[in-house]
Specification:
The protein is α+β, with helices and mostly antiparallel strands. The protein has helices at residues 2-41, 43-48, 60-75, 81-88, 92-105, 121-132, 135-151, 193-201, 204-215, 228-241, 288-319, and strands at residues 108-110, 117-119, 154-161, 164-171, 244-247, 254-262, 268-277. The protein has two domains: 62-125, Arc Repressor Mutant, subunit A (Orthogonal Bundle); 134-311, GAF domain (Beta-Lactamase), CATH 3.30.450. The chain has eleven helices and seven strands. Strands 4-3-7-6-5 form a five-stranded antiparallel β-sheet, sandwiched between helices. Strands 1-2 form a two-stranded antiparallel sheet. Strand 1 (108-110) and strand 2 (117-119) form a beta hairpin. The longest helix has 40 residues, at 2-41.
Amino acid sequence: MKRFLRTNANVSKATKSAASANGTAITGRARSKGSRLSSGSTDSTDNAAPETAKPQRGIQSVEVSGRVLLALAGARVPLALSDLASAAQIAPGQAHAYLVSLSRLGLIKRDELSGRYEPGPLALRLGLLRLENQPAFRSAVPRVAALAEAIGFSVAICIAAPQGPTIVRYEHAGFPLHVNLHIGTVMSLPATSTGRVFCAYLPRETLDAMWANQSGAAERAMTTPAGRATFETTLERIRARGLESSVDAPSPGISSLSAPVLDGEGRLLLALTVIGSTGAIDVAADGPLAHALLATASEIGAELAVSSSASSASTLASSL
């Protein structure tokens, strides 16, 4: 009898233990389900929270090389090794090792006479590649080629660069000229028709920086005090007719016509300059050559305006 009672008691305890375990499991499942429901109700909030982007690993030596290139670009003039090292904030010995590698790549080159470092051929190619992706340049290239073929004179595309108006495309046509014009040639601001077009449209601070690089002295004025009023009148005339000419200047026997390409807000994007031998080229403001040049500049500006309007409309539509 006692043995039966002990056995029954044990069975009762086992039953209670099983029931308790079953209840715990049910409660756990209920809590899990409730947790999932609760989690589901806040999914949108959790997904909306931006995740912090982890910084990506880079190569330190490449970044130091970038500092060297940035220092050279910021100087805008060839630099000696010590000056370049100081600007890049590295030791001269360390800078020399980087310059050797950058020179091998063609990103930097060393002038044999002065020993100073300047941008290399690969740097120029990269710059031109970036330029070729600019809408104004892409639009101008085929039209300038057609213009040069039609009029029989060479045509240059010039953009604003730190040293001044710089030729970035030169379409040869007609007879060879005795002046050496090529990609990279910098035009004088006050002495060339191209330079005066840039003076007429660029902001004063941009012109001051260009002129400081061209003249080598920031305090040197572009014109004399006596000639300042005459120069301003010339710039007003350029803005009024969208054209400037030059005869036998700055090179004797060479004349030119230059016209701006403007965006929809009247800002200068680039300039087109027709160049030829004096006597062979007609630089009259009302002549056929001037009309052809102005028509080409106008076509480029109109195409850019249409592209800009289409881009703005597309952006607006995507935001609705």
